[in-house]
């Protein structure tokens, strides 16, 4: 088949719906990625405007034009936008757009989940911006430390908007992380083993796992702080057994890994672009991968270095200071690999390379000040000063924004199909470099002179006046530079002439498709034999376009792509992808109502929207699957493969596995908080300890056995073509017993009496929710069986349910055991 005929056959299958309807129904990674990039870039502009307001306010003692209330909102929203609404969403957007092309697949693993996450992000970001314009934006700093963020000191809805809005927006991050992990592990070109992955895919795999393990503690902290504000559950009130330090532990368990969640995608971008600019291959591929993994692991042992001044025991101070210094080792490995790549190649100074050189200078300086604040004696002096503010900006702007601008310029032909013609970008670069160092190098100095962070004005005679005036002037030069970069990208995206397919002569697969890429990305799934397939096989793009790879004949008139084995990249089965749907957008809207209704205490609306989310989720899940056995199908190149509905562990099982990883980290954080309060918080032990009695443990034991045993019985019955009703009934009975066992905790405690009781209520509520969710999924599977979606060949849905029921049973055993253990010991 010729390339044109194949395109005409594939385009009607994969295209978006026409007109404005297509914006809200698309699930295509190219369209979602483009919209995501524009949305995140808009948030960067909003955060930059707020930064300029801050610098104008602090330019001199006479320049203050905002009162403390408005300034606190501006300051808080600047940090919130840059950390939550720009930094993480921007690299997620770039990943959504680029990853399928790099991996040689047609779309991400869960296109509807990607669309749902994008709309959650856009709606949540809009809510935060509207709150700012309405004067009810959060005002307690982007870290929301209790007790200042408690209802006693922040009585309005400002803090509630932050707690619930950020928790809602994080759905987007969790969903994107699940998509990325499953896509990198299973959705790749044939022959693309793990040691042939593009280096950016390795980085994003590491980052996605970090998101799944770092975000849940912050989400838990936000939810229990909101419970304290709404229902007087005293998690952070010392007089009732709480401890405000619990928030800092939960927040920084997220907050410090987040720094590396932001840095590692930038490092991945550099590792992709630098070899191309140097006209060589990456030096030390294996070492770079090992360094990325090591940095990810070490980042979870650093959170306490944000708390050196809170009274941590000296042994803890020494440990966390040492670990904070140790992160320089994997960071240094990456930097030396990049220097070695330049050394062995023949570098060309294109604009992306210019931004990478700017990164080298700035990030190394930020890293050196990072080692300084890792030293406890120095941190005690510099903590909460503008030295820390300057260090943070050196790391985040120099270490993240500069590489991301390099990425935009490098992949601009893929995004727009045009080559760069206008040359404002070079001027913008030099203005940014001069403005950035002029601003934040000076603010290091101000911090060393004692200038505190979060102040809303400069006092006469402070000694900081001249420094802040120069820093503010430099800040506006920085803003002009960024403005030129935005203008340059926009003009070149819409006005410049069309360019050739691979202008950089890169070797990775995202340059093998026409630019900009079609909705289906690849006309057929390529077969690769190296890390740089376009260098080793220049004719590969033409053969792929002619349909000479896998799935090159769209004879079944549906969206299909290839799923391969995890390690070797061998074809395993065909994944049938979903078509365009309005459900992700509708579900995002209803989910936003569910999260935001508690801000105004509209509990009826929250429960009504929760019911709406449930109905939409069931409709979403019902659309998948098949009512007939298809058997092995022709996948091209003489190979026959089953579809994803006829394999033991379908993509939904993998997605559930990693979603439950995040869920288990949230539960582990809850148990950590429970143990922390028992051992550290004042006013413990509590006045009364829960007595387990006999009924609760018996119900829990019976529930675990029936729930886990029943689903195994049902799973075996389905695979042997026998009726599964006995097993499913036993599972439902077991889940009901787990709910009853957890309910005994509610009956024996009062939610607002003591932090102990409040924590037990959250543990019991977690168990009830998951047992109830597993019960609903069991009923859903029953309906699917009756509708003909399940057979002896099509039993993957049962395996997914088994995973969720086992998790609910395990969580119940651990949670109720932790609740009853003090009573047993007493």
Fraction in helix: 55-70%
| Averaged pLDDT | 94
Beta-strand portion reads: under 5%
Structural class determined from secondary elements: mainly alpha
End-to-end distance, in Å? 77 Å
The radius of gyration over CA amounts to: 27 Å
State the total count of DSSP E strands.
4
Output the strand order for the largest sheet: 1-2
Biggest sheet, open or closed, and with what strands and sense? 2 strands, antiparallel
What overall geometry do the principal axes of the alpha carbons give? globular
SSE order, one letter for each helix or strand = HHHHHHHHHHHHHHHHHHEEHHEEHHHHH
Number of helices: 25
Indicate the low-confidence ranges by residue numbers. none
Organism: Paracoccus angustae
Pfam families: COX1 (PF00115)
Subcellular location: Cell membrane
Domain Cytochrome oxidase subunit I profile: 14-529
Structural description of this entry:
- It is a single chain.
- With 826 residues, the protein is mainly α.
- The protein contains 25 helices and four strands.
- It is found in: Cell membrane.
- This is Cbb3-type cytochrome c oxidase subunit I.
- It is a multi-pass membrane protein.
Quickly list its features.
respiratory chain, 826 residues, two-stranded antiparallel ribbon, heme, two-stranded antiparallel sheet, globular, iron, mainly alpha, electron transport, transmembrane helix
């Amino acid at each position: 088949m010729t390339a044109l005929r194949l395109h005409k056959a594939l385009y009607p299958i994969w295209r978006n719906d026409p007109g404005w309807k297509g914006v809200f129904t698309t699930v295509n990674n190219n369209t979602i990625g483009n919209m995501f990039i524009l949305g995140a870039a808009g948030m960067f502009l909003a955060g930059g405007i707020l930064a300029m307001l801050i610098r104008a306010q602090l330019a001199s003692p006479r320049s203050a034009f905002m009162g403390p209330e408005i300034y606190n909102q501006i300051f808080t929203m600047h940090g919130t936008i840059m950390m939550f609404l720009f930094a993480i969403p921007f690299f997620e957007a770039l990943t959504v757009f680029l990853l399928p092309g790099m991996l040689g697949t047609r779309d991400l693993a869960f296109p509807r989940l990607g669309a749902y996450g994008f709309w959650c992000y856009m709606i949540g970001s809009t809510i935060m911006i509207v709150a700012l314009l309405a004067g009810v934006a959060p005002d307690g700093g982007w870290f929301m430390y209790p007790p200042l963020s408690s209802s006693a000191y922040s009585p309005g809805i400002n803090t509630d908007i932050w707690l619930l809005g950020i928790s809602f927006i994080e759905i987007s991050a969790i969903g994107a992380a699940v998509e990325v992990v499953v896509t990198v592990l299973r959705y790749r070109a044939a022959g693309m083993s793990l040691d042939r992955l593009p280096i950016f895919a390795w980085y994003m795999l590491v980052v996605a796992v970090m998101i799944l393990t770092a975000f849940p503690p912050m989400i838990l902290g936000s939810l229990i702080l909101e419970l304290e504000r709404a229902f007087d559950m005293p998690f952070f009130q010392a007089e009732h057994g709480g401890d405000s330090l619990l928030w800092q532990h939960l927040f920084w368990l997220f907050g410090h890994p987040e720094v590396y969640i932001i840095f590692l995608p930038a490092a991945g971008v550099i590792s992709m672009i630098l070899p191309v600019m140097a006209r060589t291959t990456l030096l030390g591929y294996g070492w770079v991968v090992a360094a990325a993994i090591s940095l990810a692991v070490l980042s979870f042992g650093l959170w306490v270095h944000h708390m050196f001044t809170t009274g941590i025991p000296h042994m803890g101070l020494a440990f966390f200071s040492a670990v904070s210094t140790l992160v320089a080792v994997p960071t240094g490995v990456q930097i030396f690999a990049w220097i070695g790549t330049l050394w062995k190649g023949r570098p060309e100074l294109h604009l992306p390379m210019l931004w990478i050189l700017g990164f080298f200078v700035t990030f190394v300086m930020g890293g050196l000040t990072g080692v300084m604040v890792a030293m406890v004696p120095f941190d005690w002096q510099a903590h909460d000063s503008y030295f820390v503010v300057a260090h943070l900006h050196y790391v985040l702007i120099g270490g993240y924004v500069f590489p991301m601008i390099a990425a935009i310029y490098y992949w601009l032909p893929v995004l727009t199909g045009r080559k760069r013609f206008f040359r404002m970008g070079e001027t913008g670069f030099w203005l940014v470099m001069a403005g950035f160092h002029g601003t934040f190098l000076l603010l290091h100095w101000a911090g060393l002179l004692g200038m505190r962070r979060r102040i809303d004005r400069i006092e006469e005679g402070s000694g900081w006046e001249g420094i802040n005036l120069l820093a503010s002037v430099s800040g506006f030069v920085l803003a002009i530079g960024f403005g030129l970069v935005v203008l340059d990208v926009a003009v070149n995206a819409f006005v410049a002439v069309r360019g050739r397919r691979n202008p950089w002569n890169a070797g990775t697969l995202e340059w093998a498709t026409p630019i900009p890429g079609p909705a289906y990305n690849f006309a057929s799934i390529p077969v690769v034999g190296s890390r740089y397939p376009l260098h080793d096989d220049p004719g590969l793009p033409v053969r792929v376009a002619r349909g000479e790879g896998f799935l090159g004949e769209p004879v079944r008139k549906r969206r299909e792509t290839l799923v391969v084995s995890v390690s070797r990249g061998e074809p395993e089965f065909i994944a049938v992808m979903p078509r365009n749907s309005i459900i992700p957008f509708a579900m995002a809207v209803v989910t936003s109502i569910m999260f935001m209704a508690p801000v105004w205490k509209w509990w009826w609306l929250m429960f009504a929207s929760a019911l709406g989310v449930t109905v939409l989720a069931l409709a979403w899940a019902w659309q998948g699957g098949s009512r007939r056995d298809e058997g092995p199908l022709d996948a091209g190149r003489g190979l026959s493969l089953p579809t994803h509905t006829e394999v033991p562990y379908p993509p939904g099982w993998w997605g559930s596995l990693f979603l439950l990883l995040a869920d288990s980290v949230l539960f582990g954080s809850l148990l950590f908080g429970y143990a922390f309060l028992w051992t550290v918080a004042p006013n413990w032990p509590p006045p009364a300890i829960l007595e387990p009695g006999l009924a609760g443990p018996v119900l829990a034991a019976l529930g675990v056995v029936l729930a886990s045993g029943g689903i195994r019985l049902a799973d075996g019955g389905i695979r042997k073509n026998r009726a599964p009703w006995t097993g499913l009934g036993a599972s439902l009975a077991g889940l009901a017993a787990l709910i009853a066992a957890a309910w005994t905790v509610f009956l024996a405690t009062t939610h607002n009496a003591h932090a102990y009781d409040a924590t037990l209520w959250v543990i019991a509520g977690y168990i009830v929710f998951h047992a109830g969710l597993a019960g609903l999924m069991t009923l859903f599977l029953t309906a699917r069986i009756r509708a003909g979606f399940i057979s002896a060949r099509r039993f993957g849905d049962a395996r997914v349910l088994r995973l969720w029921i086992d998790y609910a049973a395990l969580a119940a055993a651990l949670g109720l055991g932790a609740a009853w253990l003090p009573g047993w010991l007493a």
